[in-house]
Input
Amino acid sequence: MENNNINFIERYFHDTADSVLNIDSADNLIVKKIISDTKLMMKEVCKAGAITYSQLRNVYQLMKEDGMTFKDIQLVRPKIAYVQARLEKKEGQKFLEMIDDFIERIDPDEAKAAEQIKNLQAFMQSIVAYHKLNS
Output
């Protein structure tokens, strides 16, 4: 992976980051770009061996529960930090930092949070799928 000094959101989602959590209001071209950027990111993550499929599934498992609230998703952050600390590769740590950054961006308003959490869960599903495809 090139340019390890910038984070994953800046590298892959610099112009679509806000739309990841608000994909329902994004236009079709933005949705297409998010999927394309996710696919590219996961090719590079897998190529670098940044995080294993099992590690990624463990992170996804923490956040895939239906009906998660703002508080529930925020309480996932320390668990992700633990997994992040255990990763040996810096690329993997930066990848999980991206997931944490998206969680941090979730609006505390419960109605908005519910929709954004659902969108983040869908984003995580695509990450897991593209990891499986590329590993």
